[in-house]
Amino acid sequence: MSSPDLTDSERQAVVEVLDTPNLSMGPQIRAFEKAFTEFTGLGHAIGVNSGTAGLHLCVRAAGISQGDVVLTSPFSFVASTNVLLFENAVPVFVDVDPRSGNINPTLLAEAARDLTAGGERAQKWLSRKGSASRRSLKAILGVDVFGQSADWDPIRKVANEFGLKVIEDSCEALGAEYKKRKTGTIGDYGVFAFYPNKQITTGEGGIIVTNDAQAADLMRALRNQGRAPGDTWLSHTYLGYNYRLDEMSAALGAAQMHRIEELLQKREQVAAWYGERLAEIPGVEAPFIEKFTTRMSWFVYVVRFNLWIDRDALAKRLEARGVPVRPYFLPIHLQPYMVERFGYRPGDFPVTEDLGRRGLALPFSGVMTEQQVEFVCRSVQIEMGKSK
Ligand SMILES: *Cc1c(COP(=O)(O)O)cnc(C)c1O
Fold first, then answer.
1. Which of 196, 251, 300, 340 has the highest Cβ tally under 10 A?
2. Could you tell me which CATH class the domain 261-385 is placed in?
3. Shortest CA distance to 33 belongs to which of 24, 22, 42?
4. What does the pLDDT look like over 205-231, one tens digit per residue?
5. Assessment of whether the complete model's pTM goes beyond 0.90
6. How far is the CA of 118 from the centre of ligand 1 (A)?
């Protein structure tokens, strides 16, 4: 489905770490973090060992705890909701825009108003069995899905009006821009992730960026077993975690960040090949790009089929031809553990479910050739022909 884009500079950077005694918490993580304060222009970057860990620390920093309500998107990778459940917060889902798949700001405003007004109107959003012990609306956790920014201006407006913290899950959108601003820098805290299918990789890893110095100090402590500045190795001010990013991973990440523009451009080229070729095939839609997206940072390439196409049967036939594909996303609210905990049912978030039914990720990476894209598209065209 994807492939990392690595050169000798990355290999050398990792091997050099092995010749030093510093395999964790050394100069590499500091260099990697510096690359991110420079890239984003924000004051603080905190490297962690996964995007999920980064999001979890943001949830802690935002003071979200037992019973707090957080507005978020059901059309995302599960980690964005799971980090709320780790703290026993209550996710309240808001359906998404049918074209971009990002959270719908109009519905978000409506949800915030209704929840704050309480009473019957809040019940519309909080009728779930797992929502009984709710406290108050605390935050918005928004996602920049598939490498495209959410519509942050109206989201921030809702946050300001109701005094909510904003966590920006930009794990799929490193390098993307919203009205010329980099994604990840718009929320109170932003998170990027570096699993091998992301725009840059550290193997496993993630990073938090923020301008909030106090939150940054707390998150630094929490990633390192709760050790605050001044704590010794065996004294722990907070309940923390081992969310540290090791030096080999950080060195790999820093070397990738040296090539970030090249990496993003190669992905743009592959997306452009797909766009041109798919435009010739009726019944399949290329990804929609919003006007406010001044830069797309291609993460996955998700196409959408007309309803008359049996997406799952088509996927099977593509796999059989040697084209790996994946449905993207299976809605979070319909994952078995979510159904069990909150009692969600099909139909609860129709736009999310429709996108989930019709979307298919095609193979995508910055190292794909035009011939490979052509092979995938020809396979799609042939197999779609059989669907009629
Ligand atoms: C990749 C991703 C994450 C983080 O994933 P990790 O595997 O923990 O690094 C979080 N949210 C979204 C939307 C993602 O795509």
1. 251
2. alpha beta
3. 42
4. 999 999 999 999 999 999 999 999 999
5. yes
6. 33
